[in-house]
């Protein structure tokens, strides 16, 4: 039995991890620490059995230290982060505060409780990071591996790179048992609708434009969030302390292809279920028109990375991770989830930028 502290566990990836872990490990204790910013929602983990939500900031080192001591925490799974590149361009300070200073706060508390006071008790600090720390690839460059040089290009990716280096340093300097995973673009249930897939899906349902940066040919590797949770599980169970593992979906696609899949999926499900036209009368599909008529090309994002790709050889060979979903299957599941959980995303949209 493990005692987990899941930071950012009311957010998108962290919330899915809480659902996943509780189902797989019903006897483990789970404490969620979440600040409940615009992207964190109580409803995301509502109904998950025996999960204690603590509303607080990872930068509050005294709070984290108290949780580790009082609850006998032996495993931290650290998701809490500011993660939207556009927001990092307009407001980078928040990214440095949460992603760098917040991660350091957690590391200090873990070192204090597990090493200084705990005399080296068995523990694990798992840090969830991104493939964006590696920079941008050319069309013929090999995919990112764990030895690829860091070349972050946005304030977001730079802040995550800084946190990665701190985690590594606490292992090599102090002996803290850490692991890091760098994942590709996640999608799936409970994703805040500022990211491409939920934004374009909900815009298609409401008849709003689908804003495509530049020429739409920026390439990403797409990873269903449940596969990401399986990858983190594999790192926690089989990963070696001090090591980094790249977790990918094996689905390298240009944004335009992803957007076309969204439009096709929406059109097909409206054709199969006439009741959707009554629920979403503003959708082009409700009027028998293709959703791709909403596509609108806009000025490219500043410093927009052209291509990301993940080489997951190490994760496959050393910890047994293999993604289970191709993109069409994963997106079909995601589309169905958003249609079945309209109350969740409408409540999120209604809150806007107001912290809950």
From TrEMBL:
Annotated Gene3D superfamilies: NAD(P)-binding Rossmann-like Domain, UDP-galactose 4-epimerase, domain 1
Family under the similarity heading: Belongs to the NAD(P)-dependent epimerase/dehydratase family. dTDP-glucose dehydratase subfamily.
Pfam families named among the record's database cross-references: GDP_Man_Dehyd (PF16363)
CDD domains the UniProt entry points to: dTDP_GD_SDR_e (cd05246)
Record-level Gene Ontology MF annotations: dTDP-glucose 4,6-dehydratase activity
UniProt keyword list: Lyase, NAD
Protein name according to UniProt: dTDP-glucose 4,6-dehydratase
Enzyme nomenclature, EC number: 4.2.1.46
């Amino acid at each position: 039995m493990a005692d987990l502290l899941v930071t950012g566990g009311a957010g998108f990836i962290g919330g899915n991890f809480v659902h996943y872990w509780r189902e797989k490990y019903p006897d483990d204790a789970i404490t969620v620490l979440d600040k409940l910013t615009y992207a964190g929602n109580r409803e995301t983990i509502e109904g998950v059995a025996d999960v204690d939500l603590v509303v607080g900031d990872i930068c509050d080192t005294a709070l984290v230290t108290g949780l580790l001591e009082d609850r006998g925490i032996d495993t931290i799974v650290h998701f809490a982060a500011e993660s939207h590149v556009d927001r990092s361009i307009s407001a980078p300070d928040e990214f440095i505060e949460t992603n760098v200073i917040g991660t350091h706060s957690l590391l200090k508390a873990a070192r204090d409780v597990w090493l200084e006071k705990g005399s080296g008790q068995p523990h694990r600090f798992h840090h969830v990071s991104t493939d964006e720390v590696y920079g941008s690839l050319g069309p013929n460059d090999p995919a990112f591996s764990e030895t690829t040089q860091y070349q972050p290009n946005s304030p977001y990716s730079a802040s995550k790179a800084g946190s990665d280096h701190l985690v590594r340093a606490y292992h090599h300097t102090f002996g803290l048992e850490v692991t890091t995973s760098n994942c590709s673009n996640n999608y799936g249930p409970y994703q805040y609708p500022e990211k491409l897939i939920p934004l374009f899906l909900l815009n298609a349902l409401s008849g709003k434009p689908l804003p495509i940066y530049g020429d739409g040919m920026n390439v990403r590797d797409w990873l269903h969030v449940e596969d990401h949770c399986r990858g983190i599980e594999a790192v926690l169970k089989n990963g070696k302390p001090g090591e980094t593992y790249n977790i990918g979906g094996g689905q390298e696609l240009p944004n335009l292809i992803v957007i076309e899949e969204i439009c096709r999926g929406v059109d097909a499900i409206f054709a199969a279920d006439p009741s959707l036209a009554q629920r979403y009368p503003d959708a082009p599909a409700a009027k028998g028109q293709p959703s791709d008529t909403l596509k609108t090309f806009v000025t490219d994002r500043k410093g927009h990375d052209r291509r990301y790709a993940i080489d997951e050889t190490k994760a496959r060979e050393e910890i047994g991770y293999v993604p289970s979903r191709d993109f069409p299957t994963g997106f079909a599941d995601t589309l169905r989830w958003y249609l079945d959980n309209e109350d969740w995303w409408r409540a999120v949209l209604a809150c806007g930028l107001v912290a809950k």
